[in-house]
TrEMBL record:
Entry coiled-coil feature ranges: none
InterPro entries attached to this UniProt entry: GH, Glycosyl_Hydrolase_84, O-GlcNAcase_cat
SUPFAM superfamilies: (Trans)glycosidases (SSF51445)
Stated name of the protein: OGA GlcNAcase
Domain annotation GH84: ranges: 1-150
GO terms, molecular function: beta-N-acetylglucosaminidase activity
PROSITE patterns, sorted: GH84
Length: 204
């Protein structure tokens, strides 16, 4: 019925999207969802070109970066992806994912993402460690990175008030830049406080 896989996928996605009343959030994960899966490159991929042309503009497209698990995300790559998809991508960030090797747990700060990426994104999803408790630092430092991307204008949550104050003591926070090391130190302090609070509760 369809001349290509991309046209078949776009047709089905468009039909479901319209049947659901064109919801404000509707995400499509392409078969080629990172640069290493594209042949020969994202900008020259016939598959992605077709997806970009055929998929309705209200549908978000998921992208993981250069690889399935990307150590770095650059503005240059996102510009290339945006051009071929004809929309800003939704990053599905596998930086902390350990479902492929549960012997590993990732506890470091959110890093390797170039400053100013938010203007190139339609959204960002973080794929966490499988172990719930191990995600305190990843999610905490992601929040710090996100606030730095917004120039510190985002309102802090109940735990974030201390974080903003602590980061205000450093030059990196004052100029709106993100420091993974500073974010890690604040997250560790807040995590220890959370652990101590849980330990002091009945049954802790």
């Amino acid at each position: 019925v369809f001349p290509s896989l991309a046209q078949a996928q776009a047709s089905v996605a468009n039909e479901v999207y319209q049947e659901l009343g064109q919801p404000s959030v509707f995400l499509f994960c392409p078969t080629e969802y990172c640069s290493s899966l594209c042949s020969p490159s994202p900008s020259q991929s016939c598959y992605l070109q077709t997806i970009g042309q055929e998929l309705l503009p209200g549908i978000g497209v998921i992208w993981t970066g250069p690889k399935v698990v990307s150590q770095e995300l650059s503005a240059v790559l996102l510009e290339e992806v945006e051009a071929v998809l004809r929309r800003r991508p939704v990053i599905w960030d596998n930086l902390y994912a350990n479902d492929y090797d549960c012997r590993r747990v990732f506890l470091g700060p959110y890093m390797g993402r170039a400053p100013g990426l938010m203007s190139r994104l339609h959204g960002l999803l973080l794929n966490p460690n499988c172990e719930l408790q191990a995600n305190f630092i990843p999610i905490h430092t992601l929040g710090t990175w996100f606030r730095s991307e917004l120039g510190g204008s985002a309102p802090p949550d109940c735990a974030g008030g201390e974080e903003v104050a602590a980061l205000g003591d450093s030059q990196g926070a004052q100029d709106g830049s993100y420091s993974p090391q500073e974010a890690l130190e604040v997250a560790l302090r807040d995590w220890v406080a959370e652990i101590n609070q849980q330990a002091s509760e009945p049954g802790g």
